[in-house]
């Protein structure tokens, strides 16, 4: 299975703002992390992939056939968790999934099987009869991932699935996504680097509408060798002012050192123990990840 985006473009404001610009990439089964700061174009790209938004230019093909031609057959293969989706507080978790199954046009028997399996997958079987208003943030996010899984999609698109969650709940969602891999294409948008570094087979980095970098996490980290140095925090400021980017801090003895990232680093820093995906994200987007 190959989902190919070719020269995909979407502008707003009568062509003055490019939300997505000339985006070309091929996706095969695996977990793809779409990383980029707010406003980079991630949601716009996902909305085009899920056929909710028509591109101004470019094409999306699945195994060589455009998604326009595939129509309902394409949409039947998709699962989408949008960034903002309403949940009905007075529904139980199970009622919500039944409701979503009906919207997806599933028969009663199909829905029965799918709701049961999905509740198991997202670990909400025991709490399925509780009203959604009593769910924690993490449970609500898992339920929303669940609605995207009802039709056992081959292409799963998740827009900021860990938004607003505490670290423990984020780890739970991360483990769930890792389990969902296999023969699906999973595209997961986030600006939280730590959410994806263990589970993504490929990283796609977006900045200002452009897909500016793509590769396997370790490959991107290797490419950045020589562009990251450790520097004592007290002395780092002058270099940040002269164009280097300030990344993660680490403790060395009594002192705090920081990762300085850039093409023109000062000579007297120390090589870091390892280049991290945070460094990669900082280098390509100019912004620190979380
Ligand atoms: P992200 O998901 O990475 O935060 P978005 O795709 O939401 O980024 O937005 C990309 C850019 O497109 C931003 O500059 C945003 O303001 C602009 N944009 C998105 N949707 C619209 C819209 N409906 N009308 C006008 N501008 C939009």
Write a structural description.
There is one protein chain. Helix content is 32%, strand content 28%. The chain is an alpha/beta fold and 290 residues long. The strands form 3 sheets. A 6-stranded mixed β-sheet has the order 6-7-8-3-9-10, sandwiched between helices. The radius of gyration is 21 Å and the shape is globular. The protein starts with a strand and ends in a 5-residue tail after the last helix. Adenosine-5'-diphosphate (ADP) binds next to strand 2 and helix 1.
- What overall geometry do the principal axes of the alpha carbons give? globular
- How many helical elements? 10
Integer average pLDDT: 91
* Major sheet details: 6 strands, mixed
Q: Give helix % range.
A: 25-40%
Small molecules in complex: adenosine-5'-diphosphate
How many distinct beta strands?
13
Order of strands, main sheet, comes to 6-7-8-3-9-10
Q: Secondary structure elements and their pairing?
A:
Layout lengths: L2 E10 L4 E11 L2 E6 L6 H8 L7 E6 L2 E2 H4 L1 H5 L1 E4 L11 H11 L4 H14 L15 H13 L5 E5 L7 H14 L4 E6 L11 E6 L2 E6 L1 H7 L4 E5 H9 L3 E8 L2 E7 L15 H9 L5
Parallel strand pairs: 3-8, 3-9, 6-7, 7-8
Antiparallel strand pairs: 1-2, 1-4, 4-5, 9-10, 11-13, 12-13
Helix pairs in contact: 4-5, 5-6, 6-7
Bound molecules: adenosine-5'-diphosphate.
Tags for this model:
290 residues; alpha/beta; 10 helices; 13 strands; six-stranded mixed beta sheet; 32% helix; 28% strand; binds adenosine-5'-diphosphate; four-stranded antiparallel beta sheet
């Amino acid at each position: 299975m190959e989902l190919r985006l070719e020269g995909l473009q979407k502008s707003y404001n009568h062509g003055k703002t490019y939300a997505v610009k000339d985006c070309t990439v091929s996706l095969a089964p695996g977990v793809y992390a779409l990383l980029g700061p707010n406003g980079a174009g991630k949601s716009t790209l996902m909305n085009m992939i899920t056929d909710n938004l028509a591109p101004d230019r470019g094409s999306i093909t699945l195994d060589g056939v455009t998604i326009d031609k595939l129509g309902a057959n394409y949409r039947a293969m998709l699962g989408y968790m949008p960034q903002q989706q309403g949940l009905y507080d007075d529904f139980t978790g199970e009622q919500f999934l039944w409701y979503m199954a009906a919207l997806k046009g599933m028969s009663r028997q199909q829905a029965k099987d799918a709701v049961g399996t999905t509740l198991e997958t997202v670990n909400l079987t025991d709490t399925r009869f509780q009203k959604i208003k009593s769910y924690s943030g993490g449970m609500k996010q898992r339920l929303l991932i669940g609605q995207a899984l009802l039709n056992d999609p081959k292409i799963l698109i998740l827009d900021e699935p860990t938004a607003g969650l505490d670290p423990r709940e984020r780890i739970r969602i991360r483990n769930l996504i890792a389990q969902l891999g296999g023969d699906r294409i999973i595209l997961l948008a986030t600006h939280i680097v730590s959410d994806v570094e263990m589970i993504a087979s490929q990283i796609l980095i977006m900045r200002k509408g452009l897909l500016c970098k793509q590769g396997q996490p370790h490959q991107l980290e290797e490419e950045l060798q020589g562009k990251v140095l450790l520097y004592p925090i007290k002395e780092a400021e002058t270099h940040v002012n002269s164009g280097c980017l300030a990344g993660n801090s680490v403790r060395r003895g009594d002192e705090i050192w920081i990762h300085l990232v850039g093409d023109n680093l000062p000579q007297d820093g120390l090589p870091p123990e390892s280049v991290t995906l945070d460094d990669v994200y900082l280098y390509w987007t100019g912004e620190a990840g979380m």
